[in-house]
Amino acid sequence: MSSALVLFGLLILFLLLSVPVGFALLLSSLGTILLTDISLPFSLLTQVMITANDSFPLMAIPFFILAGVLMGRGGVSERLLNIANSFVGHYRGGFAIAAVLTAMFFSAISGSGPATVAAIGTIMIPEMVKRGYNKLFATALIAAAGTIGIVIPPSIPLVIYGVSSGTSIGNLFKAGIIPGILMGFALMLWAYLHARKENYKPDPKATWKERFEAINKGKGAILMPVVILGGIYGGIFTPTEAAVVAVVYGLVLSFLVYRELNWKQTIAIFYDSAISTGSIMLIVAAAAVFGRILALEQIPNTVAASIMQITDNPIVFLLLVNLLLLVVGTFMETIAAVIILTPILLPLSAQMGVDPIHFGIIMIVNLSLGFITPPLGLNLFVASSISNIKIEPLSKAIMPGFLALILSLLIITYISWISLVLV
Amino acid sequence: MIGQSVGCPTLVHKEGFLMKSFAKVLNNFEKTLVTLSMFLMVILIFLQVFSRYVMGDAIGWTEEASRYLFIWLIFLSIGISFIEKKHISIDIVLDRLPLGFQKAIQQFVYLLLLVLSVFLLVQGLDLIENMRSFNQKSATLQIPMWIVYSALPVGFLFSIIRIIQASILLYTGKASNNKEEDTII
Question: Which residues of A touch B185 (CB under 8 A)?
């Protein structure tokens, strides 16, 4: 157990020194091997770094990143927003509700929360302010809506969970749909109540003709999730193949249909996505090494035993797991957290009779909340840089949204039907 | 820059030029390879789907080939990510420190990363040596596995070069400042 202290102590130290997450995991693993009596051959270390990434399912990640960026730059966000607003714009707080709906749509295209915030925030926040919404509220709402990005499929953390837990990524994707919609509804409720309090004026009601026009303009964007999910659902493609089809679809759409991309931009997008992939997969490789040392030290068993000592009641257990994950999500990078925690928590949850797919959704929803809690809330950073608002006031403004999402988290945790009905 | 070239203009200019063109070749080397890998991966896997459904006969080797491209892409992007500021790090403590202190810590971190990269380069070369002696080959394409695993030492070799470059940029101050934008994905 003392070596566990060294391991985590070093990790925290390196992270605070702003060592990149992947390198911090590697350095703390190596430091622990050198400082304690753990014996792990160095050749195993390098080998694990490669084998951790030698996986076809993991390759869904670069392509979902690529597809998301392609769609985001191809003018999709405006089109989606227009569709959503033509349907709900005339309700009180309708435009804010439309913004959440657009975030949900976009989540079905992109696999990353911060990317969702970036893609929709740059358009939505100024538009909301134009309609008289408070800028702080608009920014907080978009940051909160970004959490849905990793719950509604596709989702990069769900791919990672699927690979580390050995569960079907396709089933995890299906299981994320209704929880993501639930989170969206919770945020819409917040938007509605806020708009009623502040007495915002809604837009005039759109006619059906206008609605059809909006749908027609955005049909390419709406079809994308149909292609991805339909393909996986129908057993036509694996998630990785679906991601590639989405990339090709996005290329065709922005190249030939919308004509909003040229070759130079396309190459830049491919390059950007490639190195973003690299920085994520380095964390995957390093977290695998870190996990090896944890396993060698039997830390998963120790943690399991001590949790079992506290409770053997599944309801209390799930509450404890939620608390643990919320805290971890606040301080740790999501992907590393999934790789390190899955082998620790999954066997325990299986013992408690929790379905592994349902457990994956619980874990991802928890960690998604970590994106809007300081100090490490990436969605907050992205949103604050879009609207030039400081993190402190933003963190306060987002509290009602956070509570709404916590409420949906509890519902998702204790009613497994919500996750499992589509699987 | 202009001030420096007063003493011996031609020599400084030439050295600067050589350094620049070296950096340019290096930049484009990794950039070209990772971008190309990404394109190839898309093409290969699309071909896999296409061959299965349209031609009715699935190509068997595309999965393996794309997986190995993926491994090379990952390790080749480690170095360049230092320059592009794509590595994900937690800067909340660092950002609150005085500027001089920030630089000192970053320099120290680069030193740590340099040592780690050298270590991994050496270990990676060892691993390849081992693999070569076993002469292990991939399942479908019969590629010698040491070629796949070479991604690791090559990647950390570039990482060493880029860390040195990034430490120099700390003082010349030409590193890009759009960190917020870069952490998006």
Answer: 65, 68-69, 112, 114-115, 272-273, 276
